[in-house]
Design brief:
The complex is a heterotetramer, with two copies of chain A (259 residues) and two copies of chain B (304 residues). Chain A has 259 residues and is an alpha/beta fold. Chain A is 22% helix and 35% strand. In chain A, helix 4 runs parallel beside helix 5 (185-197). Chain B has a single domain, classed as Aldolase class I (TIM Barrel, Alpha-Beta Barrel). Classes of the chains: A alpha/beta (259), B alpha/beta (304). The complex binds flavin-adenine dinucleotide (FAD) (2 copies), flavin mononucleotide (2 copies) and FE2/S2 (inorganic) cluster (FES) (2 copies).
């Protein structure tokens, strides 16, 4: 059930982030992910940052060994792909706020583009540690008819501080049908609170250890759910009942450890 | 409708199809969810002495609709951490069978004691993992070593002991006989079948570990043969597992001699509702055949 | 295009995929037809000392696209009648491998002598039929008995001897090692996997004999694992068989260590043109991988 | 791949022949056969004497143990069915001669009916040992716009003697696009000769030992062909190249023995 496909395009998005594109036919919808196998190394989950019919893409941030190896791939190198797996963002909101931190932009970008294409309005709050690390700045600018607001930890661009501050202000000041977010879990926990206060439905893309990808091995257990099939997109409502959110994750042995 | 409850070595199960070990079994919340979704009980992931990360990915490969290969490498949080998870499953009202694996009889016995303390209703000894070196098959393929493990566990606990045997042997029933003689209270058959997937483009095994265990429909006829043979040669109850996906599959295992069932791969391919579907369908099949209970149907295909 | 010829223990085969024993193998005209349809050679039905009718019907059961169960019971015209059939296959220009089965080493040796006299190019010893009582597995599962058979046959003939081993054992490679040590010139792996089908409505085994042997795609990952292991442990060539249906399947077996292949069930499910399809596809796969010969590709998945 | 179905109708056609009907869905075409399993006994090939969409039928003549047991089945008894297998009669002839001996009528009847239904003309030569054993006399009468001619060995009906004599006369005197036949092999051998002389294409339904039914086990080997898949219907042309026709068959062990 794996497809072996060569990387056909590589693009450095930030000094620590790369987009790899490959021709992978299976239909995918925004929010879904693939398991990408780097032979001899590991197989890891990556959201599809490009979900179009033929040429798909993932956007990878250097975290540990495997992601760093993925960053070093050059066009022509073959990887294994399976999926897409998981659920998707609901594309019906007319007024959408997207809040992306770190590599999270990779997860929310294709869905936000679709909302825009369907005539919805998209506002983006984009955060990173520093200006150079802002992911998809141009891509978000192009789609954000509702404006793109930026936050960096070091203040090298936009608001100095957390993107959650920017987002909290936006949901308070303006009207949205939905908030989508992906980024560090602490960030998403804060956002869920802000969205709840503002009574806007919020959807978070959550990350957990993944092995099978098909709701079998329990590696991605998240409350009574499996991130690989019930997620990765969870509503704020649902997250309220999952004590692990923002608190615990499971390591590769299944032990519950501090997130 | 026919009464779907069944009893395995004193453990009363409201419905016959349990969650097989290694599927949805690392976390208590998942075990509880499987029970709520209709499983008649849940078998935990096989738990060892220490936390174990298992093998690197890829750990699974799917073959169409008919098979699945896995080499998870027995990842598990270890017996010290695991009781919390079991607590959650028990709190949900589930019948819980604690699965354990070890490197020798002493390790098994120690694990059995600790597992008993968690409040599980029975123990399943994983004597049959086909790919974890030093565990499973190496122990489970030698009737003598297997018997020692069973004896040690029986001494260490008062819980019913289910011995899970491997099909990767000349005669699985020989292992079942050895387990019975050593005091096992039930036989679970079968675990996965040793197999391999090769990627032709990359020219290497697909799974990081190389070999894996085949599960799903492809092994159903193999499991049925094992259960049939075991039924003819032991008197203790048999729990049938291997490729069960539909009510008919479950029924065939019962007719071959199984008193309860476990579903693994079908949970991934059909979703957790498979328990409800299997139980509903099984009720209909029993009704059509005028069996009032599971008990009445057990082994009925052996009658001449 | 890559050169598809291959050599197994001195026997040059124009193409690597042979007709497996027991398929189209009772009559010389069918063997000849299989060769004309593109098979690189043909293995005869396993022939015994006397004519044998085999088991009553039903002798087969099909599982969707992925598997087949059979218990033919080794029907065969017997070694006295069979030479005429072989003559027809040889006259068509086919490479013919004579398969024999017997109850002990002496019977095998006597059959080997008579089979040699027919002019076949090699012998295949069926040490692995999983359902014929007294033959096959009972002999083929014990490395010592297996070695005796191989030795006796080697003494009785000058032909290359292929030992066909069973997967119904703890470690098929152990049997292969025993065969190699005893003088076998090649290993054929695998025969069918012991299995059972039950009819849920009639509540009885489907096959008249009860147990049968599973073949087809379902056993491909099992066969691949066996070939892989054998390749790591013996030096004589391996003939891979078990579930090969497509060129990719064949290629995977070659990468795992097979120097030639046999196709059985696929002949029924895909038709006799499967040989042409597999060979054409295999040529393309070898070309894409820049292998000029089969030889170059053998075992290449073992390289780290 | 087996269907277990109860016998839903039983009808004695002659003192030694019974038609059993069952509801068996798979599409079948005239000439094809099923493997019918009598649990605890055996599984044997039987042509479909009724090929209609839902309710199918086989017509069985007592030969040995299994067929005699099949004759004793009563409605409600369950049998196993698989198939249909094999090739079919070509239904295009406009002027068809059907020659049936013994239970052979079971094989040719449904196809001849179809030819008639499509507007073709059907002539039937029907033979048996004695009048009471004439199979489907009414059924053939109903379809035979070209006439039904009868032959019995004992002269209790129609021509006294072989149906082959009747058929030989018919092909000489009249014009046909095709002859179909099923019956004892010696009969069919003679007919092939007559048809060849008259230059009419002839098609014979041939019987051989059968086990798998799917061109695998070689039990039904017939020259370079398999009766289960290349047959059971063979053209006279093809039969000319099969020395076994009328001469040899194979027993259950695969030995070639006199037919
Ligand atoms: C559904 C899903 C979608 C994902 N999509 C993307 C994506 O589009 N782009 C992207 O760059 N990454 C994505 N990830 C995360 C990515 O899978 C991990 O970063 C990668 O597995 C790390 O592997 P590694 O060997 O490089 O790092 P490791 O050496 O395994 O870990 C390095 C660091 O990364 C952290 N980390 C590792 N895995 C995760 C994880 N699953 N969740 C949170 N932190 C983790 C570890 O805690 C550690 O601090 C996704 C994860 C999931 C579950
Ligand atoms: C494709 C095909 C279609 C058939 N269709 C019909 C049908 O529609 N109606 C019908 O009554 N019979 C049909 N037959 C024949 C039928 O299968 C046999 O009569 C039956 O298998 C006999 O089984 P038994 O156990 O009763 O007889 P056995 O005890 O096995 O044999 C009794 C006698 O029948 C003869 N016989 C057995 N099998 C065959 C055979 N396959 N061909 C010729 N002679 C045989 C034997 O030589 C013996 O003399 C068909 C056979 C084939 C191959
Ligand atoms: C992903 C996976 C993990 C498994 N882990 C275990 C395990 O830890 N202990 C065990 O005894 N069996 C384990 N098994 C085997 C199953 O419990 C079961 O015996 C086997 O999969 C056959 O059943 P199935 O075809 O219904 O999956 C595992 C199977 C799979 C597919
Ligand atoms: C109908 C049938 C008959 C067989 N008869 C024999 C036999 O006589 N001798 C033998 O060595 N193997 C026999 N086999 C096993 C095959 O040769 C082969 O090893 C097995 O079917 C696996 O290959 P496959 O999956 O390509 O069919 C038989 C298999 C089938 C399906
Ligand atoms: S990754 Fe295995 S259950 Fe989700
Ligand atoms: S019946 Fe087996 S090949 Fe025809």
């Amino acid at each position: 059930m794996r497809t072996i496909a060569p990387v056909v395009e590589k693009r450095w998005e930030t000094p620590s982030t790369v987009t790899l594109r490959f021709d992978y036919a299976p239909l995918a919808r925004p929010g879904q992910f693939v398991m990408i196998w780097l032979p001899g190394d590991d197989e890891v989950p990556m959201s599809l940052s490009y979900t179009s019919e033929g040429r798909k893409g993932v956007t990878i941030k250097a975290m540990g060994e495997t992601s760093r190896h993925l960053l070093q791939l050059e066009p022509g190198t073959r990887v294994g792909l399976r999926g897409p797996y998981g659920n998707t963002f609901d594309l019906s909101p007319r007024r959408l706020l997207v809040v992306a931190g770190g590599s999270g932009g990779a997860v929310v970008a294709p869905g936000a583009e679709e909302v825009r294409r369907k005539g919805g309005s998209v506002t983006v709050a984009l955060g990173a540690t520093t200006a150079k690390e802002l992911l998809f700045r141009e891509r978000f600018t192009a789609m954000a008819d509702g404006g793109l607001e930026i936050a960096t930890d070091d203040g090298t661009a936009g608001h100095r501080g957390y993107v959650t501050d920017v987002a909290a202000r936006l949901v308070k000041e303006r009207s949205f049908d939905a908030v989508w977010t992906c980024g560090p879990e602490v960030m998403m926990v804060k956002l869920v609170r802000s969205a709840e206060e503002a009574k806007v439905p919020i959807f978070c893309s959550v990350e957990r250890e993944m092995k099978c990808g098909i709701a079998m091995c329990d590696a991605c257990a998240f409350g009574p759910y499996h991130v690989c099939s019930d997620g990765p997109v969870f509503s704020g409502e649902r997250l309220r009942d999952i004590p692990d959110f923002g608190q615990f994750k499971r390591d590769a042995s299944g032990r519950r450890v501090r997130a | 409708m026919a009464d779907l409850s069944t009893t395995v070595a004193g453990v009363v199960l409201p419905r016959p199809a349990l969650l097989a070990s290694g599927i949805w079994g690392e976390s208590g919340a998942s075990l509880a969810a499987a029970f709520r979704a209709g499983a008649g009980g849940v078998v935990t992931k096989s738990i060892g002495v220490k936390p174990r990360e298992g093998y690197p990915n890829p750990t699974i490969e799917q073959f169409g609709e008919w098979g699945m290969l896995n080499a998870m490498g027995l990842p598990n949080p270890g017996i010290e951490e695991y009781p919390k998870e079991i607590g959650q499953a028990l709190a949900a009202g589930a019948r819980v069978v604690g699965s354990i694996f070890g490197g020798d009889a002493d390790e098994f016995a120690a694990l059995a004691r600790k597992m008993e303390a968690t409040g599980v209703h029975a123990l399943e000894l994983n004597l049959s993992c086909p790919h974890a070196k030093g565990y499973g098959s190496e122990i489970g393929q030698d009737p003598q070593v297997l018997a020692e493990v069973v004896k040690a566990v029986k001494k260490a606990t008062t819980l019913p002991v289910w011995a899970k045997v491997t099909p990767n042997t000349q005669d699985t029933a020989l292992l079942a006989e050895a387990a019975e003689k050593a005091g096992a209270d039930a036989i679970t058959a079968i675990n996965t079948v040793r197999a391999l997937a090769i990627d032709p483009v990359l020219r290497r095994p697909v799974l990081a570990h190389g070999f894996g265990g085949l599960s799903g429909p492809a092994i159903r006829p193999i499991g049925l043969a094992c259960v049939w043979k075991i039924y003819e040669r032991v008197r203790i109850p048999i729990v049938g597992v291997g490729g069960i996906t539909t009510a008919q599959d479950a029924y065939e295992y019962i007719l071959a001699g199984a008193r309860a069932l476990e579903l693994g791969t079908a949970v991934a391919t059909k979703g957790i509702n498979v328990f409800r579907e299997v139980h509903e369908g099984l009720g209909r099949l029993l009704d059509e055949a005028h069996f009032a209970t599971i008990e009445e149907a057990v082994g009925q295909a052996h009658r001449k």
